[in-house]
Design a protein that fits this description.
Layout: E1 5-10, E2 19-20, E3 29-38, E4 41-51, E5 56-60, H1 67-74, E6 82-87, E7 90-95, H2 106-132, H3 138-151, H4 157-167, H5 184-198, E8 202-206, H6 214-225, E9 231-234, H7 238-244, E10 247-250, H8 258-261, E11 275-277, H9 281-316, H10 331-362, E12 401-408, E13 412-419, E14 424-428, H11 435-442, E15 450-455, E16 461-464, H12 477-485, H13 487-492, H14 515-527, E17 533-537, H15 545-555, E18 561-565, H16 569-573, E19 578-581, E20 590-591
Parallel strand pairs: 2-6, 5-9, 5-10, 7-8, 8-9, 14-18, 14-19, 16-17, 17-18
Antiparallel strand pairs: 1-7, 3-4, 3-6, 10-11, 12-13, 12-15, 19-20
Domain ABC transporter: 29-278, 395-592
Protein name: ATP-binding cassette domain-containing protein
Biased composition (Low complexity): 388-399
């Protein structure tokens, strides 16, 4: 069961080369020259930035650019190869592993989460009694205790617990239920609640909205805006970034000098440094596009100048050949002209060579070739295979898939829908309403407890589920793709077909991929032989912002039916097809 969760510690503990800022009273998160290199790739190089108390900085970048690695370094779960980190007080990270044993009940998890804050309230009481007993040092300690308790919301903690639990969509869970009995999404939301209630001074969040519906995301944004310490978030949620982020930190490659990266041209990592942007994500998109265009022009102009200087150096070596002199001149004149010619040639060559050497040292790096989604192939042509046999898909203008009152006890209320050959349907609804369950029923991987499915006998259905299929982590990406789609199809439709997986990653082990890179591999597997009905469960989770934008545009031209289950508000705002909103079993589903 893959899910997001949290880790918390205090950087006042010795975690060399991480340094604690708590002792100095600093209230900013400071990252200075952090680099991280793995045996097969460079991920982070000379990354430096500051996140002030009360600031919400969002780290963005392509899949594999090092966002999660950076957060793990800041949390003390990984060590940089160079550089240092300073963070105020305790540091909490929401990431991949639960911070509590799964055999704990919901009530025990919440008690564990709130224990440090309750201890702050108890400290206030203790120091107050000490002051009343005449302890001369108690006054200063009491002031510090009151400040800590106020900053961490100790006085309204019980109300805060109820608000967070209800707002994150886990209020309906009975408190005696064990975490091991919860779904992956419920564990993730309980883990986020654990971290928010624990109230660390420095808050680090890795894809916090992946399992949150609109109401839960709204609560999270509200809590982050009132966080007293620095907040650093890695996210691909465009609407969330637009609403919450006060600063964007872009880990994608920047136009640094070629000499600085000449030894590392094939790295799948972030490039060098980080680019800070103070506007919204919407503003960032336009700014980044302009920056890339300027970079490309700069690189092109420099290459033209380099070629001109190299040609000049070659030509200047032969200008004014000293063996040629005026036909009528005397021997003395010949020597004079020869010496003068040599000096002129030497000066020209030196001037051109110096300019060439300087430009070669300072020239900007080549703009990296970014993965671009190349769109879809028609499942009805060539059998969905390059060079394959013709395959006849569903014919006619009627429905190809109909669900009549399908229901799964406790997971999906009776739901009906009808899909045509080119239908576009967006399924929305709060957490627990059954979006993933409905897609699993439509894909025929889960049998409904009630209702019926009617489908064309030739219909082929493909599902991109939220949870990745189990794959041997030691397999190469190329081998895993071939194993999933079959050797013959993998040969006809190479892994590179859709522009989802970089060639440099094809021979890396699957276990070394980031979550986003693994998501790209799973999508490539589904699209290798395009299905007549494409089912996508939260397709924007983990994928890079630019890829998501390209994927959404391409879906308009998908040559089959598309059903998307998503809580992505950005996607929903731009959706032009049909909508189906699911409610809980009491409310039932409804077409919007």
């Amino acid at each position: 069961m893959a899910h997001q969760t949290v880790q918390e510690h205090s950087l006042s503990q010795p975690l060399h080369p991480l340094q604690s800022a708590a002792a100095s009273g600093a209230d900013h998160l400071r990252v200075d020259g952090v680099s991280r290199i793995y045996p097969d790739r460079r991920v982070l190089t000379d990354v430096s930035f500051v996140v002030s108390a009360g600031e919400i900085a969002c780290v963005i970048g392509e899949n594999g650019s090092g966002k999660s690695t950076l957060l793990r370094i800041l949390a003390g779960l990984d060590r940089p190869d160079a550089g240092s980190v300073q963070a105020p007080g305790t540091v909490g990270l929401y990431h991949q592993e639960p911070p509590y044993p799964l055999d704990l009940t919901v009530d025990q998890v919440l008690r564990d989460a709130t224990a440090p804050v309750r201890a702050m309230a108890a400290r206030v009481e203790r120091e107050g009694l000490a002051l009343a007993d005449g302890d001369q040092g108690a006054a200063a300690r009491l002031d510090a205790a009151i400040e800590d308790a106020h900053r961490h919301h100790a006085w309204d903690l019980d109300h805060r617990v109820d608000r967070v639990v209800a707002g994150l969509g886990i209020g309906h869970l009975t408190r005696d239920r064990r975490a091991s009995e919860l779904s992956g999404g419920q564990v993730s939301r309980l883990s986020l609640a654990w971290l928010l209630l624990r109230s660390p001074d420095t808050l680090l969040l890795d894809e916090p909205t992946n399992h949150l519906d609109a109401a839960a995301t709204e609560l999270l944004v509200e809590l982050l805006r009132t966080w007293s310490g620095p907040v650093l978030v890695a996210s691909h949620d465009r609407a969330f970034i637009d609403e919450a982020a006060t600063t964007l930190l872009d880990l994608d490659p920047a136009p640094v000098a070629h000499a600085a990266v000449a030894h590392d041209q094939g790295s799948p990592g972030s490039g060098f440094g980080v680019t800070r942007f103070g506007g919204s994500y919407t503003d960032y998109l336009a700014s980044r596009r302009e920056k890339l265009e300027r970079w490309a022009r700069h690189y092109r102009d420099e290459q033209d100048e380099l070629n001109r200087l190299r040609a000049r150096v070659r030509e200047d070596h032969t200008v004014g050949n000293p063996s040629r002199g005026p036909r009528t001149e005397a021997r003395g004149s010949k020597k004079f002209y020869s010496d003068r010619n040599a000096k002129v040639v030497s000066r020209r060559v030196n001037d051109a060579s110096t300019a060439l050497e300087r430009l070669e040292a300072e020239q900007v790096r080549r703009p990296p070739a970014r993965l671009r989604f190349r769109g879809f192939r028609d499942p009805a042509s060539s059998g969905g295979r390059v060079g394959g046999p013709q395959r006849s898909g569903p014919q006619g203008s009627g429905p190809v898939l109909t669900a009549t009152g399908v229901a799964v006890t406790g997971r999906l209320a009776p739901t009906s829908l009808s899909l045509g050959a080119r239908s576009r349907l967006l399924v929305t609804g709060p957490n627990g309403s059954g979006k993933s369950t409905l897609l699993a029923v439509l894909a025929d991987v889960l049998a409904p407890d009630a209702g019926a499915l009617t489908r064309d006998s030739r219909l082929r259905i493909g599902l991109l589920a939220q949870e990745p299929p189990v794959v041997d982590p030691g397999l190469s990406v190329r081998a895993a793709y071939a194993a999933a789609v079959g050797e013959a199809l993998a040969e006809r439709v190479p892994l590179s077909t859709h522009g989802l997986v970089a060639g440099r990653d094809a021979d890396r082990p699957v276990g070394a991929l980031s979550v986003g890179q693994r998501r790209r591999l799973d999508l490539a597997t589904v699209l290798a032989d395009p299905p007549d009905v494409l089912l996508l469960d939260e397709p924007t989770n983990h994928l890079s912002l630019l890829l998501v934008t390209e994927l959404e545009r391409a879906l308009l031209d998908y040559p089959g039916a598309v059903v998307i289950a998503s809580h992505d508000r950005w996607l929903s705002a731009g959706w032009s097809g049909e909508r189906l909103r699911l409610e809980d079993e009491a409310g039932g589903p409804a077409y919007d």
